[in-house]
Amino acid sequence: MKTTATFYHAGCPVCVEAEQSVAQALDPQRYNVEIVHLGDQAGRVAEAKAAGVKSVPAIVMNGQTFHINFGAAIEALG
């Protein structure tokens, strides 16, 4: 059974670079990667906050939130 890894970002250059790196690094046999562009999907900001996202880019997988570099604070997105 595959695990879903949800990658949250805001479309900034740091986020886009991280998205490309993460998408390539995760084993597609083990993970379904969902990309959530919070600039385009503002309705999902509350979901990201509830998952523990404090800044983007970030990835949530196996119930844990991992922050990657720093593109924008989640508070700036909504």
From TrEMBL:
Under the heading InterPro entries, the entry gives: Thioredoxin-like_fold, Thioredoxin-like_sf
Which Pfam families has this protein been placed in?
Thioredoxin_3
Instruction: Tell me which residues make up the Thioredoxin-like fold domain.
Output: 10-66
Q: Any idea what this protein is called?
A: Thioredoxin family protein
Question: Which organism is this entry from?
Answer: Luteolibacter luteus
| Taxonomy of the source species | Bacteria, Pseudomonadati, Verrucomicrobiota, Verrucomicrobiia, Verrucomicrobiales
